Amino acid sequence: MADLEEFRGEIRAWLEANCPPEMRTRPRSEDDACWGGRKWTFSSDAQRQWLEVMAERGWTVPDWPKDYGGGGLSPAESKILREELRAIGARQPLYSFGISMLGPALLKYGTEEQKCRFLPEIARGEIRWCQGYSEPGAGSDLAGLQTKCEDRGDHWLVNGQKVWTSYADQADWIFCLVRTSTESKQGGISFLLFDMDSPGVSTKPILLISGYSPFCETFFDDVKVPKDQVVGEVNRGWDVAKYLLQHEREMISGMGLGGGGSALLGKQLGQIEDPFLRAEVAAFDIDALAFTAMSEHFMDQLKAGEAHPAMPSMMKYSGTELNKRRHELVMAAGGSDTLEWESERTRGGKPAREWLRTKANSIEGGTSEIQLGIVAKHILRLPGA
Amino acid sequence: MTLLTDDQRQLQDMARTFLAEEGTIKKQLRHWRGTGCKDGFGHGLWKQFAELGLTGVVIPEDQGGLGLGATEAALVLKEIGRNLTPSPFLTTAVAAAKALEGTAQGERWFPGILAGETVAALAIDEGKHHAPEAVALEARRQGNGFVLNGAKQFVVHGASADLILVAARTAGGVGEREGLTLFAVERGAHSLEVENVNLADSSKAARLAFNDVAVDADAVVGEVDDGWTPLSRALAAGRAGSAAELVGVAAGASDMTVDYLKARRQFGRLIGEFQVLQHRAAHLHSEVEIARAAAWKAAELLDRDAPQAELMVHVAKAKATRSAQLAVQEGVQMHGGIGMTDEHDIGLYMKREAVLGQLWGDWRYHARQVAELSGY
Ligand SMILES: Cc1cc2nc3c(=O)[nH]c(=O)nc-3n(C[C@H](O)[C@H](O)[C@H](O)COP(=O)(O)OP(=O)(O)OC[C@H]3O[C@@H](n4cnc5c(N)ncnc54)[C@H](O)[C@@H]3O)c2cc1C
Description:
The complex is a heterodimer.
Chain A: H1 2-18, H2 45-57, H3 75-87, H4 97-109, H5 112-123, E1 129-132, E2 148-151, E3 155-166, E4 173-179, E5 189-195, E6 201-206, E7 215-226, E8 230-231, H6 237-254, H7 265-269, H8 275-303, H9 311-334, H10 350-358, H11 368-379
Parallel strand pairs in A: 1-4
Antiparallel strand pairs in A: 2-3, 3-7, 4-5, 5-8, 6-7
Chain B: H1 6-22, H2 25-35, H3 43-51, H4 70-83, H5 89-100, H6 104-114, E1 120-123, E2 138-142, E3 145-156, E4 163-169, E5 180-186, E6 192-198, E7 204-216, E8 220-221, H7 228-261, E9 265-266, E10 269-270, H8 275-303, H9 309-335, H10 346-358, H11 363-373
Parallel strand pairs in B: 1-4
Antiparallel strand pairs in B: 2-3, 3-7, 4-5, 5-8, 6-7, 9-10
Flavin-adenine dinucleotide (FAD) binds at residues 130-134, 139-140, 164-166, 215, 360, 363-367, 369-370, 373 of chain A.
């Protein structure tokens, strides 16, 4: 205990000295958040510096082993680091699918060579990854995917199409579900990694209702992939895919609510004249604070290895539905000001665009309906679920 | 909510076994309801709580208690909620014990509470909605003591209580926290009228009329005019505790319902195979888990004396109430006709929620406190 308190003191002092003041806020926009990668241009020196000092200590991924670029911290130590970061309002130094999705899957299923090769560059933010799961014919029913991957002796040959691939046009590499066998649905899927610069890969951005286009259609036309870039066994990729989804859902569950108690919506909105709105906001804040307590508890359970494997689905469902409600209330509180789509007053229609963006939360990473189905089947053990 | 310690897990297991064996709906709630007992709970069971040390769960160790906190009380209350066990545990061992903490009246009453011989009640509200500041019941100085005049309602276990902690006004105006004084009034006090009221869930609450009830100066709990201090201690513990009990009610109703979905057949299948019911059950499960985390977080903050404890207690009581409401409403609906019968237990959960949900503030009261504490 005394050691932990000492550790807290050290962290606090180090953060005080090393976290640039500009990084002690939540990112103001998608560009203001640092995503890293070969194509990344830092939006400020502070952004670059914050990533560098954190990566140097392995604290972009505090609980990964040091050998793979992590901080090697124990669960208790990582928790202290999280708390201290939150206390000064520090943002994440790096937003990354590599960290939140691929990393955990590689740590569990990757070979030693794969871990040594891919994890450190994820930790340092050098390679940006995208997720090639969904296809036009395979959304909720993901295992119905058709992207073809043939064994050509010294390489794999990939042909097919993915869709809704977030940031595919900005990513360096893709982790991709492909069909290596048609003999069984789940049992014919493999988990493949490849460079987005490989010949035959192309992307086409799709415009969202928010007016942003963060995701793409992704096409594979005779893409050659080296043989050692399959994670886990060939035809056993579904296990890897599902494990990764648990981590994705964990990440999405916390989106938008970060900051815990300080994130009270009513506090952010200030005095609310309309008694009906005030009541709705208070009801929301109760649910949000209760959910925050649940998130903390879930994190503790996870780190202690006591979390039910379907818990991320419950968290994802509740967290995303809550975030949508939050933005409905922000719109209501802002009245007709929030309808402006381009004005400087609204920093380019930020409230409306963000409100629209949250509608995807209960779709991406598996819809709310799919999460409820998972809870019904794996936690409640209801028949035929 | 951090994870439970080994000691807490042990206490939880002990409470769970004890109440699952002795505190069942059949042995306690239905039994006492059937006998028309005026207390609505069994004194034998209250003695058993004492033998296990539970009546002293929050009483300091140097005064003979276990010296534990809101978290341990919550662990017991959750099991009480799950079994709908009628007992004076929440009012006596949690709320009143906290009010008495560190006071001379505590020395007087703790031995009886520890022995399972004393039942205590809190007399706060005077109207049909909870409003602890809106005390009009007047305590006038007279000679060496005070004379009390006024009325109270929703005094849970009031007619069974050996000790009633009465919030009275010694100064200030109705609606103010200042000028309240908490008095320890003993059973049978002269010119105290007690009407024992049977509530929807078969628990008892009293309406009290004070017509020149005289008490000594040493009946004051804490300081004159500073009754808010012991009162708010009792309310915080009582609300956190009722949140935990509501979580137990919610979990009990929800589990009973999920079991029914796996047993009842219609259209040639188990009704739990219908996706519409699966999704509603999964939503309910999430809400109950979240309420549990909120209740535990509130207890943990109270135990650490953390500044956010007050806010979180309001959140916990409101969230636990809402989740329990969802659980009992979905519970009755998903049971169909049988759920409407007195013979089936699911309806008992609905009635218990209704009472606990209003005790020491319904969820709207707590929502208002959240808004006010947060400055909006
Ligand atoms: C912003 C955004 C970013 C995304 N990023 C990525 C990405 O980076 N990589 C990637 O691979 N994918 C990504 N996706 C895709 C996402 O995972 C899919 O959209 C999602 O899984 C749903 O699939 P679908 O769109 O085909 O909808 P469908 O599966 O066609 O669903 C349509 C509706 O039917 C319901 N439904 C379907 N099946 C059932 C069932 N069994 N029971 C009850 N209801 C059902 C759904 O809940 C939904 O309401 C992203 C999506 C969005 C919106």
